[in-house]
Amino acid sequence: MRTKRGAYLVEMSLVFPLLVLLTMILFSTAFHYHEAALQQAEAISAQREEEMRNGPMGRGEAEFIRKTDSLVRILMKEEKGDESKK
């Protein structure tokens, strides 16, 4: 009985750090993809704003894009605020 307990302890001491490492890699990768998505959304928003200033676009279409982009910015600020509280 004692050798089985010891064997379980040794197996767990080898497996547990690997599980922790894999979990950390998973969260780190997800965080980086999330940050890249936020940067891409901001770049698209800036590009749209530039097109609205310089390009031929109808007033209704430009207004819709401005409202959509402002909503995205508000959601991004709220999300960043939630992250800073953690």
The largest β sheet comes out as:
none
Question: How many DSSP E strands?
Answer: 0
Gyration radius, in Å: 24 Å
Q: What's the end-to-end separation, in Å? A: 45 Å
How many discrete domains? 1
Portion of residues within helices: over 70%
Put simply, the count of helices is: 2
The proportion of residues in beta strands is: under 5%
**Quick one: overall form?**
rod-shaped
Give me the strand/helix succession. Answer: HH
Average pLDDT over all residues? 83
Tell me the structural class: mainly alpha
Which segments are poorly predicted (pLDDT under 50) over 5 or more consecutive residues? none
Q: Can you characterise this structure?
A:
The protein has 86 residues and is mainly alpha-helical. It has one domain. The chain has two helices and no strands. The longest helix has 53 residues. The two termini are 45 Å apart.
